[in-house]
Amino acid sequence: MKMLQFARLSLVSFTVLFAGCKGKDAAADKADAAKERLSEVKEKTAEKVDAAKEEIAAKKEGFYNWANEKTHGAQCKVMDSMIGKHDGVFGPGTADAPRWGIPESKPAKAKVRRSWSKLDDAEKKRVIDGFLALKQVTVGSGKPGAARADYDSICGPVGQPAYERNLYDYYVEAHMNAFLSMGTPIEGHMQMSHMGPQFLPWHRYLLLRIEADIAEVTGDPDFALPYWDWEDCHADSDPKTCAPIFERGSLGTGGSCDDSHREVEGYITDQGFKVNITTQGNNLFIPEAIVCNQPRVLHRQVGCADLVPGAPTRADIEAMFTRTTYDAAPYDHCKTEEDVSFRQYLEGYDNDTTEMTCVAVGCHMHSAGHIFTGADMYESSGSPNDPIFFLHHAQVDRLWAAWQAANVAKGGDAAVDAGNPGYPETHRGSLFVWPEVTASELFDHAALGYTYDDLPAPR
Ligand SMILES: [Cu+2]
Description:
By secondary structure, the chain is mostly helical. Helices cover 40% and strands 4% of the residues.
């Protein structure tokens, strides 16, 4: 009996042992195959990274230290020579939602965009909550709008780690892509989001999209973006702080002029608002400057930059109304034969500066708002990282609407094209990143279903 048991046991052990051997062989085979696959993947990834590095190096060669140039004209020319060095390989940053935000026909009831400082505390919080909600709309979230968070991120192609894509950062990326791909051979110098006639329509559409996103995600179909009335900064005893806008209870503080303490404090930070993708050191055109997936708190340095005395003033707005032409040749950021056009002026350019930053990105009006807010709004092509970006651009959009209305009121030639006399024929087409939308269909804001609580008129 015992013998039999032993025999049986041995047989069992032998079988187990044998089976174990066989199992080990199979497992080893599997491990080898996995290793092989892994090294293949690694090799392919390394190849891709090398290719990306080469591409980036080639692009960097096109960058020139144009700060050496001392005159406006010379700086302009050098800047121009940089444009077109990037060929748009970074991906358009699109999500599959063509014409999102554009109503099929003019809605019966217009949305009303109101001044930020006219909102009560609860309304302000609702706006901030809307921005926060977009950060939660990730591809796998199952939330409304999740499909639009499935965009081509710039991070992979520039060799940066992926982060969890979301409906807020889509706009940061779209804006970064627009800078990186500026003046691509495909799009040409014509269809540019900045430094050209499409500056205003491009940002008008960006606002329409995010406004529609917030409306959908928060379930509030009447949601309208507020605007930052720059004049509110001058009603304050200290225009440098612009306390009525940068308040602790909602949008958060203005950070600090001390470079190591720029963190925005207050409601928005307490609610967990984080920056996920940005660029380092004022580099708008260099892919190497992009940093992904190092989440951090929002940064501001309100009123710290010497380049601008403060937010634009009422006098600046009056000067805007004296411009009679929408845009003038060479239709960019450079000097025109006479004075700067309306678009050049509102974007921030002037003819006289030789300060390199002011030649490149402008120091007045729109640009002044970016520089005045500082840090994330100023140093990066990812300026939509700061929600004030959308309020700021709503103000720019409002001033465009005001200028148009003033022209329509004048009648005659000034009233053509919804009050955009001088809008060049060559720049009416598709928008960069959103080719399904054309610039000219964005001329009439009322037809797009929104209006402003107050449009300034020339005095
Ligand atoms: Cu912009």
